[in-house]
Amino acid sequence: MLTKQLVLDSRISTGSFDEFVENILQLGAARSSAYVCCANVHMVVEAHRDASFRRVLDEADLVTPDGGPVASIAGWVGGHAQGRVAGMDLVPALLTEAARRGQSVYFYGTTDDVLAAIVARARRELPTLRLVGTCAPPFRALTPAEEAAHVAAINAADPDLLFVALGCPRQERWMAAHRGQIRACMLGVGQAFLVYAGMEQRLPVWARRLWLEWAYRLWLEPRRLWRRYLVTNTRFLYLMARKLLTRKPAARKLAAG
Questions:
Q1: What's the pTM?
Q2: d(CA 95, CA 104)
Q3: Which of 45, 117, 150, 192 has CB 3.0 to 4.6 Å from 87, enough for a Cys bridge?
Q4: How confident is the model over 155-193, as pLDDT tens digits?
Q5: CA–CA separation, 37 vs 46, rounded Å?
Q6: Same domain assignment for residues 169 and 225
Q7: Taking CA 138 as the corner, what is the angle to CA 133 and CA 141, rounded to the nearest 5 degrees?
Q8: Residue 236 is part of which domain span?
Q9: How far apart are CA 61 and CA 70, in angstroms?
């Protein structure tokens, strides 16, 4: 597994994009009931606020540096440059490589319309991909019987990779709760479903490098996301600044001693 570095209270995996793809495909091939989280600023702040969610991230097999600030800080802590490993980029890369290796995939979450668009694109671009199933669960808590039926259907389809889009932190908690029940590598990729389906556009690469993707999404959904991005991003900067300021006096004290 890849080395992890501490960003606030969350242990973020580090490595090249290709190393993440290879590690995820190996987890899928092993059928070890693993799960992968894609951590942006919102997720890291949520883990700082909620100890139970922090445990969910701590126990993940991989936590990719999905957001630019998270990637930069993880690299700085580790003493090397670290690029983003975003779910929106992982999905097409993993599907392409899964098709090449003969590994199977399943999509769980979002809506029937989005899933239909995902399937149409995958079949058009990757005709050899083993797409063994999809499921759009209702937007409410499932009954125990429904939950058991969904797990049974996924296991019957027997995927190597299970892509999950239930929104943060629900999808991460769902994966953690189903470790040991689902025989696949689960990946919480949320918004990546809409992007891969062609229902939401991404900013150009130059704008992503300037960390402007959050502003674009805020412009698309201001009512739903204003608190997450404006309040949460500000809180992240404050918490990181406080952590760095308290770290420096401690480092000086150790050096003096």
A1: 0.86
A2: 9
A3: 192
A4: 999 999 999 999 989 999 999 999 999 999 999 998 899
A5: 13
A6: no
A7: 120
A8: 211-256
A9: 18
Check whether residue 61 and residue 102 sit in a common domain: yes
Cα angle 147, 153, 155; round to 5: 105
The owner of tokens 């949520």 is 46
Dist. CA 183–CA 167, nearest whole Å: 22
Residue 256 binned pLDDT confidence (cut-offs 50, 70, 90): very low
Residues 155 and 240 in one domain: no
CA-based torsion, 155, 157, 161, 165: positive or negative: negative
**pLDDT tens, residue by residue, 215-244:** 666 666 666 665 666 667 777 777 778 877
Q: How many Å apart are CA 208 and CA 1, to the nearest integer? A: 27
The whole-angstrom separation of Cα 165 and Cα 195 is 12
Residue 67 has a pLDDT of 85
Query: What is the residue whose two structure tokens read 């309040």?
Result: 231
| Beta-bridge partner residues of 11 | 6
Answer positive or negative: Cα dihedral of 102, 178, 67, 240: negative
Q: Which is nearest to 120 in space by CA: 194, 179, 197, 175? A: 197
